[in-house]
Design brief:
six-stranded antiparallel sheet, alpha+beta, globular
């Protein structure tokens, strides 16, 4: 059986490309994790699965949230960094190029109970398992099942444009910031119309929808960490818990309580 390892430290010395197997898995336990795994890349693609707690993954021009029972897929060669909530239970699955029909872009995948158990099993096996045998057959079934995992829209587009990055950094640091588009335009010495067009061009979303998506990802992270709905609503600057629940339900089809109950 593998030993739990801390996110920010043990992975620094682990090279997934040093193993020639089509898929290898690691199990991680994160206790009071305050550090972010630095930006890095590897030839193998990486699937990050959260069984409890959550993980935020940042890639060029986007941020991805991994709520419980979901996984984010990062294609091989893409720079990325990861941050986990306290006491998260995480599995990393590294997949060799062309070993499975995985998406060409980052995405959040809904993970079936079968795929979850296959990943857990593989994480308990040696990373250099025999190329023929029971473990290799499990890995083959896992890769076949992953190819049909449903994609979910749990990401935030983040533009590299200097002025939009300034807005993004401010809102990520303080999600409760309710500065309007007109106020941002004045602060950035732009017309409101020009800024509105820039946001849509760079992110594909209006400013209001973009900020709401940010709120959704922050809410998922905080709820996955165990924060109460009332506290999360306040952290995001909502006037009432009802308004926050309405936003959450419109985005994900369920209230926060129903959403996380279904995941469990």
């Amino acid at each position: 059986m593998t030993n739990p390892i801390a996110l920010a430290h043990s992975l620094d010395a682990f090279d997934p490309d040093g193993f020639d197997r089509p898929a290898i898995a690691l199990r991680l336990e994160v206790e009071q994790n305050a550090a972010e795994q630095p930006v890095h890349r590897h030839r193998k693609g990486q699937l990050i699965l959260a069984l409890s707690g959550g993980v935020t993954c940042t890639v060029p021009n986007a941020m991805w949230m991994v709520p419980p029972q979901h996984a984010v897929w990062i294609p091989g060669g893409m720079p990325h960094s990861n941050r986990a909530t306290d006491n998260a239970r995480i599995y990393f699955l590294f997949i060799a190029p062309d070993a499975a029909a995985m998406p060409e872009r980052c995405c959040t995948l809904a993970i079936s109970p079968l795929v979850r158990e296959l990943i857990k099993y593989l994480a308990e096996q040696p990373t250099a398992y025999p190329p023929q045998g029971a473990t290799a057959r499990v890995a083959a079934v896992l890769l076949e099942q992953l190819a049909s995992a449903p994609v979910e829209q749990l990401h935030l587009p983040i533009s590299a444009h200097a002025k939009l990055r300034q807005i993004a950094d401010a809102l990520i640091a303080d999600p409760a910031d309710r500065t309007t588009l007109a106020q941002w335009a004045q602060r950035l010495a732009m017309s409101e119309r020009t800024l509105a067009r820039l946001v849509v061009r760079e992110t594909g979303l209006t400013f209001g929808r973009w900020r709401q998506q940010l709120h959704l990802l922050v809410a998922l992270r905080q709820l996955a960490a165990g924060d109460a709905v009332q506290r999360v609503a306040g952290n995001l600057g909502y006037d009432s818990v009802t308004a926050f629940i309405t936003m959450f339900r419109k985005a994900l089809g369920r209230s926060p309580t129903q959403y996380f109950s279904a995941l469990r």
